[in-house]
Write a structure and sequence with these properties.
With 279 residues, this protein is α/β, with parallel strands linked by helices. It folds into two domains: 3-165, no CATH class; 168-278, no CATH class. Helix content is 49%, strand content 19%. It has ten helices and seven strands. It has helices at 3-14, 18-38, 50-58, 79-90, 167-181, 188-201, 207-220, 230-238, 241-253, 262-278, and strands spanning 46-49, 67-72, 98-107, 116-125, 128-137, 147-153, 158-164. Helix 5 crosses helix 7, helix 6 (188-201) crosses helix 10 and helix 7 (207-220) crosses helix 10. The chain starts with a helix and ends with a helix. Keywords: Transferase. One of its GO terms (molecular function) is transferase activity. InterPro entries: AbiEii (IPR014942).
Amino acid sequence: MNENEIRNTIRRMAGRDASKAQALYCLFAMERFLERVSRSDKADRFVVKGGVLVQSKVGVDSRATLDIDSTICHMTLDEQSIKGFLNEVIAIPLDDGMSFEVKHLVPIRDEAEYPGLRAAMLASFSNLRISFKIDFSTGEVMTPSAVLYDFPLLFGNRSIPIHAYNTETVLAEKIETILSRGIVNTRMRDFYDIIVLPQIDSEQINYNLLMRAFERTNMARGNRAKFERWRETVLTIQFDSRMNSLWNAYRKRYDYARDYAFSDAIRALSALCEAMAAA
């Protein structure tokens, strides 16, 4: 696809929604980066998780993200190692007209559960300049391990093999975060993902594995969440005015969440916890 085709495709998909257009441009660049990762001899060291993985499962109309979340395996989490990995990946030649530049690396100091580094990337495609970020972390527990996932490309009508979290580990981390943080949580995207992921993966979710993934994640994070008290915790979250306000703000900011009330998130969370407890 040339620049005009990309612009027209994104304009058609986004309409007048500027934030959606921005997310689509980022996705275009991130897909080109991920394809290079898939062709790298270090592909198994880069495991995709987070928003870009959820987006690939539920669709760009149901989830947007401007960065790639990853955990690294068999690689040191320091600036030299990460920069070396990135430079090696972006040097892989593909006949797609895209080039990349690593602008800088900084420590992640926001809501991250694990230590990490954030890479600011600049992608160039003809006259387009697209900025996006890649988060690298380490220390996460994957249950049982990373999977080889067919990542569907929005731009290209095909898929690429990448190493990624399985759905159970994705959900386990989000449930642990919700239960451990309680009413001090600000990560409304976790509540949203709890709603939409089971909708597309409900028959494939292994609840025994989900419970084991939760237990291992919880242990790795210092046993912060008390699963035996999940009902009490969820009830407290459900009726907390601040949590409801945060959810309403999230709904207003993201069109794809507009039709979901906070009660939908609570219902989805409770259903998962019930199934885990019965597993």
